[in-house]
Write the structure tokens for this entry.
Amino acid sequence: MKLDFYLRFYTHPGESILLTGALPELGNSDVAAALPMEFVNGEFWHLPLTLPALPTEPVHYHYILKGVDGTLTEEWGNDKFIEAPGSGVEELSVIDTWNFAGEFENVFSTAPFRNVLLPHHKGKKQKLKGAPTHIFRVKAPLLHEDELVCVLGNSLALHDWQQDDPLLLSPEADWWTISLSIPPEFFPLEYKYGVYNKKEKKFTRFEDGPNRRLPGDARPKKVSILHDGFVHLPNTGFKAAGVSIPVFSLRSKDSLGVGEFTDLPLLTDWAVKCGLQLIQILPVNDTTATHTWTDSYPYAAISAFALHPLYLNLAACAGKKYGDLIKPLHKKQKELNALPAIDYEQVVRIKLLTVKELYELQKEEFEKDEAFQAFFAANQTWLVPYAAFCYLRDKHGTADFNQWPAHAQYDEAAIQQYSAPGARHYHAIALQYFIQYHLHLQLREAVDYAHKQGVILKGDIPIGIGRNSCDAWVAPKLYHMDMQAGAPPDNFAVKGQNWGFPTYNWDEMRKDGYAWWRRRFAQMSNYFDGFRIDHILGFFRIWSIPMDVVEGILGHFVPAIPVNRSEFQQRNIWFDYLRYTRPFINDAVLWDIFGHDSDAVKGQFLQPAGNGFYILQEAYDTQRKIEAWFAKQESTPAHDRLRNGLNDLVSNVLLLEAEGSNGQDFHFRISMDGTTNFRYLEWHTQQQLKDLYINYFYYRQDDFWRREAMNKLPALKRATNMLIFGEDLGMVPRSVPDVMHQLGILSLEVQRMPKNPNREFANPAEAPYLSVVTPSTHDMSTIRGWWEEDRTVTQRFFNGELGQWGEAPQFCEPWINKAIVLQHLHSPAQWAIFQLQDIMGMSEEFRRENPHDERINVPAEAHHYWRYRMHLTLEELGKEKAFNADLRAEVEACGRHAGKK
């Protein structure tokens, strides 16, 4: 069989096109073995092949753009296919359109739209007289339930543009398709797709844009397949709204002191009443490292795969058969549910003790259960190491596996043997199987219920993993265990953030095609329709902090192009190695920081260095050493001020020497111009250093960071069909918006964090379509809380953004809260998502009395207690018919889909 591939694609000089597909002759879908195509003209690329025959199963393939610099960009999707034509066919010609990942329509092919939010179309295949010469395939994901795709053109075979008699296409998988027999005398063809309303039985419109052209021909024993991309119809019509709240923050009559997976159906019911079609939650992975409240931090998981026992509903786990075991907990349940916030330690302790009893009662029948056996078989790759990790953590009293006397280094064969059913401690390990299985059942049931109600679930993927985690134990080579991830300073954390996570070893992850990430996405897709990539900027570069540092301010971006020592000479900057790279400490600096305590600080922590300068004593010359010393002292406000001052001394540097560069390469310390070290330089040197600083942070890295992201994100995006949302806040490289656009990743637009440096507030009305708008996130105060933080700022917002005259109210009254919510609902963004607290803030009746009790996280607090819980029960919220109906009416009035009634 003769096979010809044609791709409509305009390339620039030096670029080329490759093709790969699921045949040995097409490189077996291996990008490295892709076949080069031939340039035909400005419109087409061509690849001729001769095959013995085509297999009976469809053969999927896709195209790759090779840039001038050798970078490879794969088109989105893998839904183009060829299949064996009818008997007698000797030639197959394929005419394709490149599928750009950033096309809006590609979003509507993701799991939430395909499975839940958009209608499923049905249509009858038109009968064709004789053998087809052409097969037309095209996509139109945003058609209404009663609409079909049709085609008309400039020949009798395409019904001569007669709108009362269009040719109707049939839905087949991702495509609308029709097979036609077109005589050769009708070529070249001009045609257009259109929309037909099957209920009204009439043609309603043509697609936008010029006519499509087909310059081919029709010959005996030849079939042509057209993959025509998308029907050119308005593609920004779908807009919807959602609610954001951590699962732990939910409150219901049946939960035990904390929100549980079984509360999600109640939240779904309320969302449906309000016209909300998305529920966004924080990470729900197990974070149990210390069995203390510090484990409440949801972004420090001990497993990227295991769910947190915190969310287990004991009654559902017990069932009717073992329900009597739960009854004694009813009094404690009422006590915990009466608390305004979560008592994390008490809740977890009760749940773990009770589930252990339930396991002891059920373990014989549980292990024989076929559904559990199927779950175990599908998840044992991560489940067995995780269960063994939990057992060893509790046995040795620490999650720091480096301190374990045995199994400190993971050995798969040894752990399999250690976890075998015949082992003495087997049931202590198998308890974790039992817990994970029931968590899986409860979350899966909640998700299935939400889908039936037309509501999707959005999860959250943390940028890091816990340092003392099962993932780090099993595969430490995938992470840089000698570094810490964090974030540079911003308005919410002036000294930066140190999350403590090891950073990813992307080079190592790339060797097996990002297998760990693919497994992680597959696990998430069991429960979620889409997910938020926490700190997507980390895929461009991560803020990396040495282990001897505590505060984020002494980190630097990795990877990054450093400043070479020669660059200082080229700019006529005298390079003073000690002055730039060591803490600058003199009497004036000490007085600025410590005031009258300066002499005491000099006597205890410093030593003279000559000429009126000082250096830190070796016992206190890093922030980690300082923290260790103060950990042994009594905690007092005076000691806190002293510790912070000493840490400020350590960070009073201008340059950070690049590791292994022998004093030749350097990274600038962030916020260099705010240091006393910088202040005491003469003015000319300050200006020269500022210029180099700006070049380092804002210019030289752009293309480098873009390439870094494009080496990772496309491969990761291809590994899942979930809808991907990026959290692109903070110090955003200029390449980020374009990369996210190229890949069709939705951005996050927060009114209080404008991406335009010349604006104080972002305007929701100017948000891009592929984005989420929100007035606040879990890392911020709520609308009401923010309103009270800075009177001058809220006054400017009141007059400028809300367009109100006069003095702003002292407190955020319900009408103000509602006006801000409505601004976001009216936005052109595809999604408007609100914290539940901001929704309840629209009502004088339902809002919490103190808005500052509604905040979930304070990023500036290194050890924040995550314990916020809604003050109303979901049952109470669901009964508020007037409030819920009003919210639904506002959602609909703003042109957002409101789903089921």
Remarks:
- The first strand starts at residue 2 and ends at 8.
- The mean pLDDT is 94.
